[in-house]
Amino acid sequence: MRFRFSDRHIDEYYTRGATIFRGIVPPALLDDLRRAADQAREIARQKFGPQTQRLQPLSQYEINQKPFEDFGNLPELRDALSRVLSPQHTYATTEMLGVLLEPAELPYCTMWHRDWRDNISGLELAQWDAVVHDINLFNQLNCALYEDSSTWIVSGSHLRRDLPGEVARFPHRPIPGPDLEHKSPAERERLCLEYCQSLPGAEHLWLDAGDFALYRNSLWHIGNYVPYKKRATLHDAVDTPQFKAWRDKVIPEAARRREAGLDFENPNPRQEAA
Ligand SMILES: O=C(O)CCC(=O)C(=O)O
Ligand SMILES: [Fe+2]
User: Fold this and answer.
1) Among 2, 121, 217, 258, which residue has the least CB neighbours within 10 Å?
2) Which CATH number applies to 7-260?
3) At what angle do helices 7-15 and 75-84 cross, to 10 degrees?
4) What are 162-182's pLDDT values in tens digits?
């Protein structure tokens, strides 16, 4: 069925923290994007090894850029984004657009996190807390060129602080991933799956080929990857001048704090003391 925008997309975005524009990428563009993503996979593995799961920004590499430009100019997509967010929100610029890939050899998952809060070492949490509900910041896209069930989210968690069950699951910082040392491929896969399921409320963000997920990266999420499922999912910020200005301010500050020996602040410090 052809994509049709509805108010449900707006409602879902602000309540769940994620909405999916189903089938919004036309098949002819998908063919072109898949060919370009195959080039990206080859470069990524050559440059960063077989386990690499992303190449970003795509604009820096010898890859046919035309499909990415066409993606950035899709009228239905621009219209849908401007209705959920605003006409000033942009995506698929040369600065950040990347592609998420399946690892070549072994299952692997990221740790559960809220972006910036849990994965930027040295970030001062007050800087994130102050703007976490600002709709000009922290918007992100995953656009699946193949069926993709790698991403998990905790729906609605962008609206609130951590719940007691979440604090109990991850009382300390940095958040640990599963222990995959010396495990067989199937054991790694099972451990990663159980790790995904271990956060209360975790659910798959299921995408079919050509689906575009818009999500708040301030919600709890994770990527879980197996080598036997081909993945090429475009990934980018849905950006604004305000978000860029915030990044330009906090990234160097976080670097300075790291140099001074700080790493991750605990957002739930009372638990750590317990
Ligand atoms: O692979 C994914 O879908 C999630 C990646 C992610 O969480 C991140 O890039 O911060
Ligand atoms: Fe993330």
Assistant:
1) 2
2) 2.60.120.620
3) 50
4) 999 999 999 999 999 999 999
